[in-house]
Structures are given as C-alpha cells and as structure tokens.
Amino acid sequence: MIGRRHQVALALTAVLAAVAACQHQDRAGSGAGQPAPGAGKGFTLVAAGGVQPYASAADRAGFDASGGGHDFRPMLAGARPAVSGADLALCHLEPVQGADGDPAVTALPPLAQGLAATGYDSCSTASPQADGAAITRTLNALDQAGVRHAGTSRTDTEARTVTLLRAGTAKVAHLSYAYDTTGQSGAVDPADAGRIAAAARAARKAGADVVVLSVNWGSAGQDTPDAGQITLAKQLTAAKSGGRPDIDLVLGDHTQVPQPYEKVNGTWVVFGLGDQIADGGAGAGEWRGNESTLARFTFAPPVKPGARWEVRRAEFLPQVYDLDAGRAIDVNRAVTAGADLAATRDRVRNTVLSRGAAKAGLTMGQ
C-alpha cells in the first residue's frame, strides 16, 4: 500500500508530467536545446549529477514496473524535457558494486535503459571506490542501453580511447577523472592536473572541438568547495596550448549536494551538481542529499579559426528528488504548479551563486 504522503507526491508528479508533456519538444525540433535564430551553429549541453540505483530507488522502480522488473523512466520523467531538449546530455553513474542478486545490481541494466530513454548521451563513471567487477557490469549495462561513458575502462585499449560525442556540428570530448584513487589498480583515472591536461590535448588531436571534464572530487554533504577542489580547478582552467584553454567546462560530482558554480580563469566550473537520484535513507532530506542542479551551457562556435567554442549562455535548473514518490522534480516547474518548494529553490540558488557566478552571467533557467 502507498501511504498518503506517497499519494500526494505522486499526484504532484503526475501534474508535472502532464505539464512537461505539453512543453516537451525533441532534439530534432526547435526546442530549448536549439540555438536561437541567427546564433550560428552552436549547441546546448545539459549535465546532471549522480544517478545511482540505490536500494530505495530500485524498490520504487520495481513498483513503477508493475508487471515485474524495474522501470526508471517515471523516476526521471521530470528531468526529461531539459535533458532531451539539449543537443548533448551527460550524467554521473559510479560503477555499481555488490553481488549478483543485490537490488542495485539487478536494477542497473533497467537504470541504464531509463537514462537512455530520458535523453542522456554519456555518463562519467570515475570513482575512487570502483573495482573491476563493478566497472565491467556498469560499462556493459551502459553499452547495451546505447549510453556512452568515460572515466573507467575494461581494457588498456579502452582506457586510451577518447569518448567523442556529437553535439550539433561540434565534436565534444567527455573526460572523467576521480580525485582520490588510493589503493586502486589503475582502472580508474586519477585526477591529476598535468595528466588531465595531457588527456585534453590528446582529445584535441583526436578531433575534439570542445573538451568537457567530469571530475569526482570534494567532500560529500558539504555545500562549499574544499581547498583541494579550488586548487585543482585553478590548475585545470589555467592549462593552455597555443593560447587556447585545454578544457572548456568542468563538471563536479561526488559532493551529493549542490555546490557553487564559478567562472575560473575564464572557464565555467561546477563544483558540485548534487545527486539527481538520491539515497532515501534516514536523514537524506535533512542534509540536502536530495537536492541537485541540472547545468545547462549553450556554446557558440569560434569567432575565428583556432579560437575556442565560447559559452554564450550559462544556466542552472534547481532539482529535488522526492524521497517519498521516488521522482526527480524540476523545482521551478513544481513551484509554478503549486508545490511548496520555494524554500528549496531559494536554498539551491543561494548556494549555486555564492561564489559570484551571477556577475559572470549565470542565470537560473526555466
């Protein structure tokens, strides 16, 4: 039986889904992910934080499947308009550990299918906790669902292969590194500024017009970047080749809660996206572990040969994972529909803008 709180939450998400269906346009149309007329052949990138198949999320996906198995599409439906409306959409899925039969392991393939149905093109997978079996099962599930990945590898050849994605007329390299890889065997890419810059330059040589870095760093549950994050961000954004930055965008994961966005050395850094699918364990709502953002960056092509693709619009969309209903919710749309989430929206906004991002041009998207 579903309790009254579940019924209320599900009623709200049903309203939001109806609104989203009316507003949604796919990538082939003239939706939000497309550049404005006369803006040139640019592209829009959307990025989300962690999407782990926690036991509570697996239970909800099992309920949503009705006839058996798991269905994560309803869980992610609230994010689908923004995600599928972009030219390129990224998320973060750490390799899923456990024994065969564990809820998260069983739910992994359906989660990958749900990510693909929502519109995600690639997932960063670098994690300090990843082991060989978890890496193999996670990458296999993503491959079977048609979702690309970066950050972990099953073979040496795969480790040397650049993840190149198409976004409009641009080729985008997706890199993924983990800050703390103590005790790992090398299947996970450690976050070292020099090594990452070298990988970015290699991606350029492989044909990348834009290099996007997902980095697993920071302290879980902390809404301010720590000294290690700030130092690495400065090093990464300062790396240049021929006067052109090696990295065009930095997306932070692992913090589990939203952290500030900041333009560092002329390059946008998202210190922490937060988790799009959160752990429903005790206290998660209290420490903001169910709040996150979708980052949306619209890139314009170079104004002259050899120049970088510039971010001409930087936005964030507040998100919250409803722990009762098991739904990722677009906070702005929910507030418009009458949900009591204004305090959540304001809290996320204040955190995101706390390092001066508004002055650099960041706005809250709709």
UniProtKB/TrEMBL annotation:
Residues 44-280 form the Capsule synthesis protein CapA domain. Keywords: Signal. It comes from the Bacteria. Residues 1-20 form the signal peptide. Belongs to the CapA family. This is CapA family protein. It comes from Streptomyces seoulensis. The lineage of its organism: Bacteria, Bacillati, Actinomycetota, Actinomycetes, Kitasatosporales.
